[in-house]
Amino acid sequence: MSEFGNCRHCAAPLTLEFADLGATPVSNDYLDDSQVKGGETFYPLRAFVCQTCRLVQLQDFVASEDMFRDDYAYFSSFSNTWLAHAEDYATRMTDRFNLGADAKVVEIASNDGYLLQYFKGVGIPVLGIEPCKSVADAAITDKDVPTEVLFFGVETAKRLATEGHSADLMPANNVLAHVPDINDFVGGFRELLKLEGVATFEFPHLLQQITHNQFDTIYHEHFSYLSLLAVERILKVNGMRVFDTENLTTHGGSLRVFACRVDASYAETETLAATRAAEADFGLDDDKVYSDFADQVRQTKHSLLSLLMDLKGKGKRIVGYGAPAKGNTLLNFCGIGRDILDFTVDRSPHKQDRYLPGTRLPIHAPEAIFEAKPDYVLILPWNLKDEIKDQMAGISDWGGQFVVPIPEAKVL
């Protein structure tokens, strides 16, 4: 094993650094009143790229079962933008693949039923697979979406197939980055898909992450950072292939990959060829684009701190909006705490009245902003800035303005 470990896909030694973000707590480990008086564990947050398969990945420090626990606080249904995205996906996939009452949709990492509710609503049988009991319970109780609480892999897939859950469609949104054993995870899709079944993997696109300095999407819950180049290599080893892609605006620029078993009949699209070419032209199969990213990270940090310190020097009051995992990476890496932000807010009641890990900023309901009347609101989930600006448009009544940190720090 190399000094920094070996690739979780192909086992090649990891030597080329992609980003070093110091040490942070686990980004979704929000603190309650009793915990905020005690200590926290900080883990190194350092990413490398495999020079063999080009999978960008973290050093292993935290086990997945320690991060995706029963009290996991991320609930997908609290973003209107994400719900609209999910409904659009359900409509389009139903039409494209002629799904009906005789089909089966099995979503991996189904969260609180945010997506499967739209398939179920038109009479298509569904099953959710979700390792976190808190969000799975919400899917079952609030949306009547059948959900099994477990981690997905080859053995799980084989068992589900024998129980009659072989799938026509298997969505997997923003989960491929979260799995430590990526080969076992992908191999499970091959086992559970019907012969002509389709899996869709949706993930923040590494090309966009590098282009737009999105270093804050690096956190311990994300074991991997994905390109089409790496994903195709992983799928091929596990008996699957890509036949189409789609560029998305979600999460600052995502890629949706359409995959099937190697023996399925789907023909490759021109869009797939164009995505391959775009990655090749950008240099994703060369070392330089990865080693240069570290400089971009430092420059983004410095520009954000410079802006915020200038505002504080002028006596301005600043608060945050949102308590996303990416925000915790940003705040901890940049050293932004209560000396700069008074508090942050979040729509999710599961985060309200708790504290951000590391910085220990209190999390309030959004109404707290209208009570405090700050001069500036730092939008931590910058990918949702348009939705948040609409929700919080009333801050203009007292001259309040928004600040975004990514891709560059600026006042909107």
From TrEMBL:
UniProt KW Heme keyword: no
Record domain C-methyltransferase: where: 250-407
Keywords: Methyltransferase, Transferase
Domain (Methyltransferase putative zinc binding) ranges: 7-68
A single GO molecular function term of this UniProt record: methyltransferase activity
GO biological process: methylation
UniProt cross-references to Gene3D superfamilies, sorted A to Z: 6.10.250.3100, Methyltransferase, zinc-binding domain, NAD(P)-binding Rossmann-like Domain, Vaccinia Virus protein VP39
Protein name: Class I SAM-dependent methyltransferase
Native species: Parasedimentitalea maritima
